[in-house]
Amino acid sequence: MVRNAVFAGLVGLAASAASADIASFGFTDLNGSFNLGSMQFTAMATAGGTSSTAGDVTRFAEGGGNSAEFDSGFFGGGSMADVQIIIDVSNVVGPMADGNGSFTITDADGDTITGTVSGTWFAGAMGFVFMNGHTTGITFNSTGDGMFEGPSGGAFSITGLVDEYFGALSILLRTPQGVGFFNTSFSEVSTQADGLIVPTPATIALAGCGLALTVRRRR
Fold first, then answer.
1. Is this model's pTM higher than 0.85 or not?
2. N or C: which terminus of the chain carries fewer CB neighbours within 10 A?
3. What is the CA radius of gyration of the chain?
4. What is each CA distance from 123 to 12, 40, 176, in whole angstroms?
5. What is the C-alpha separation between 205 and 146, in angstroms, rounded?
6. Rounded to the nearest 5°, which phi and psi values hold at 209?
């Protein structure tokens, strides 16, 4: 699947750990909403209406190079597949704000990828809003079959992914006309999210020590 990825803030991270990257994910047309009372932003999988979420989760070549596919209309299509991003917004000052929360990606039969997010929101021109976030405590959680399976096909093994990982997450949306930067509630805004999952910093350091002795493996 070809994705219109928005990896703002991910390039440097990927370059520093390219030989050890675990996986990537990307979803378009998530249902973005913001509640001014709770100061919470959510981006959830949706189907029908004005948008229908699509995306994939890809295990890099070192783990088989396969993708779990989430084609448009997957949500509510009879599987357990879902995407949920929940971010608390705080310290809104001018065109910037803090964001802290979590994400959960669920495959067709209930396996999940979960992690926490911490980053910065930015207000751009023409109503565009984006967030660059650092993700930590990422885990691959199996329900027993050891495979992360896309509701639209494709799968990869998660049996060897037993550590906690980290990485980055970028979110992009455009607020409705007349809505400012987190000063008014909104809902049903098409939102895009892209992420990269890599080993912990300590693991990367150890992997770097071995580069002089082994041939570098690339995605």
1. no
2. C
3. 17
4. 22, 16, 13
5. 28
6. -65, -25
